[in-house]
Design brief:
The structure holds 2 protein chains of 2 kinds. Chain A has helices at 2-41, 44-53, 73-81, 101-109, 154-164, 183-193, 227-249, 265-270, 281-295, 318-338, 349-364, 366-383, 388-417, 426-456, and strands spanning 60-66, 88-95, 111-114, 127-133, 143-148, 169-173, 178-179, 198-207, 212-214, 217-220, 260-264, 301-312, 466-468, 483-485. Chain A is α/β, with parallel strands linked by helices. Chain A is globular. Classes of the chains: A alpha/beta, B mainly alpha.
Chain lengths: 497, 397
Amino acid sequence: MLEWFDTVFSYFVLVYSTIVLSSYVAMAILAFLEHRKHFTYHDDAYTIDELKKSPYTPGVSIVAPAYNEEKTVITNVKSLLSLDYPDFEVVIVNDGSKDKTLELLIETFDLVKVPYAYVEKIKTKPFRGLYKTKSDNPAFKRLTVVDKVNGGTKADASNAGVNVVSNKFFVCTDVDCVLDQYALYRIIWPTMASTRRVIAVSATMRMSNGSIVEEGKMVDARPPHDLIPLFQDLEYTRSFLIGKTALARINALQNVSGGFGMFDREIVIKAGGYDGDSFSEDMDMVARMVRYMCDAGEDYRIVQIPETCCWTEGPPNVKVLNRQRTRWGRGLFQFYGVHRDMVGNKNYRRYGALTLTYVLFFELLAPVVELIGYISVFWFFLRGAVNYHTIWIAFLGLYVFAQLLTMVIISYDVWVGTSFKRKKDYLWFVLASLLEPFLYHPLNTYFSLRGYWKHIWGTQMVWGNMTRKGVQSAKPAAPKPAAPMVQPNPEEKKTDA
Amino acid sequence: MEYYTLSRYAYWKYYYLILYYKLQEYPASVRGWIVFGSICMLLLVLIVIGNFIRYISAYRFERLIARNRARYYNRMRSVVSQTRTLEPSEISAIMELPKNYKMKERQNRSFIPILKELRKDLGNSLSRQNWLRLLQALKMPAYFESQVLSRKIRKKVQAFKDVADLDATLKEAVASRYLFTKNRKLQMHARLHAARFGTSYPFKVLEEDPNLVFTEEMVVKYHNVLVYRQKNGLTMPNLIRWCNRVPVNDELRIFAVNEIRLFKRKEDCAELLAMLIASREEAFSCALIRALGELEYIPAEKEFCRRYLSASFTERQVLAEALGAMGSGNPDVVRFLEEDFLQTTDYVTRMVLLRVIYNYGSIGRASYEKLKREASPDLQPYFAHIECDLIDSRRYA
């Protein structure tokens, strides 16, 4: 019996790991093809110049929910208002803040409540009012502030924002995200260059920990010098430049980040908007948009662009990472419960048939398989059945493969136009890559399993204090104050990137 | 004892066999992992070396640009700032370029960002003749030609973009090689180049292509091309022919109508109206209505009212806005809009109608006040919304 189990388990591990490694290789190749296409045809300066001159450039709305953001909201809104784009509006949704977020906005931007005829296209918590500026400052005229009763989730606040945006496309972001000056030009371009209807565009996001930000603008992008955000930066870069790019290449992208992503307003409304009960509302939104398009028999595309358009502050320590990853784990589990009919379903094209199946087996179940692997190795060790030669050689092979992947993403990042001024900054990525398998990966596995456990047993989600350290400022005399994300249970304030 | 020198092949085979027999004693799984790990290691080393070479090359290129900027920028500036057209020999003397110097590709490439910077700095004060002669002196046309004829698609596409950015010249025969290429992007850039610089009638390709896919990207670029042609006094396309005679591509027809509107070609309005009467496609009709409205073509008003009741909500909104934009002051129009305001069930259409009535001169304002007085309490928020100047007029509800 034991021998039978040993054999079956060994073959399972062999097949599973072979598929995982092959998928990584396949994704790296697909990403290479996509980056090459981008490199061949795209010229950032040329595109920006063409769009600046044209009256046909579509308008874009930026929706940014804010909850208890009094310490940073003004700087961040000013940063959003100073973006370079001919036609955009910024919609800040004050999600029933208990601090002075709204008062500060009113005072700084000279806002007054206007008699706006609000129509609830997507159901949200009650709308309290809409504010516009009295000032003659043309930049301030781009600002709209929506005040609503706290809905407990970012999803509810985003839905209120979607209800009032006036453009065909809207960008969903967090109020504390730092956007690139030309982010809107880059994110709108795929919708114009495609022959098919583009319903969502995802852009590369990075960690702002360690970077120098002045007045809400990225002055000097640097990798984080603390281990946890550094690991996450490497993970993000790998995910965006390889995973998402590859999936977007075959039009099977499963997620457009809630931190920075652009959506077609009409499809979002028809799909019912963000789901306030979801712990992974961004992934859920994409699923519902795809479901709508496929059910309606319409052609669509979801695009990933390689340029870094947004920087967000990552969890500074293990405690915060724990909360974030537990929630992500829980969100993923919940997502598969809600959209189980799409998994492996050819009606939902490559998204359902390929991506959701892949993510189910190699992302959702990966921590479980890994846990079984650890237990088995321990059990084999107790029985004296460990083949040390194979274990060490396999580990070494995988370790070298992980380093190879890191080197590939560094190459891709340089190729598509790195945001780092100094190339030596990549040595931090190399350091993170060398340590990741020992420190970060086991932690993530544990946190994901914790999230699954909580979801299965229906544990109430506790949103404790999410302390953000704040990014470095170029002005040493004015350090950016910490922005506490204090949320009473069970209200969520924002998605952590 | 004899010594043999191994050939290169035998040398590698020797080490291969040593490894092979060493590995023979291990199980297949270990051998597999060793092969996998070795391949990864080899690729890792190659990528590291490749990255290092690219880094050095990029660094050297940046230094070359900086050197050229320091050396030539002011000289270039003095050439193109002069109002008098300079002779090539004078330009060479100012630039102090070595005689019979064969410019390397890297050197030419390094001039591109400097030239773009110069164009941006000088704007309209730049002398076009001197500019073209400067490019000639730097052998840029030959460089662009070699790039367009190179094997790499990126070089071709980039060359077309640079030519457009620098307002440079490229032989028509060279660009025309790609007018019908299968690569859609390259074809687009070649056609854009022809449309921008072509001297005869360069739009024929666009008009006669049955497989044309006219994306929004092309809309933006062709508009910029037409603006350029108008500014430089070049032949403009016959836009009305595009509206009429390109039935295979609706996007191009809509683009042509929008261009007539943007270039304010009022002389085409009568034909646009005839097209509107015959049109059954919503997107095309909306473009026609918008154009006729913005060009204030009053004879179209009757047709607008005729179409209105059988139109979709989207078309009704466009019709109402067009009637408002015309502002003929016709009381019948206001009465017509007022009636529809009371009947329509679509809130966006209702908001559009109300805004049009509100802005329709004194007759409109009187009608608006009457509607407001008679409106039920649930309609009052719409009136307050319309009256507020701070709310963007695009934001209906």
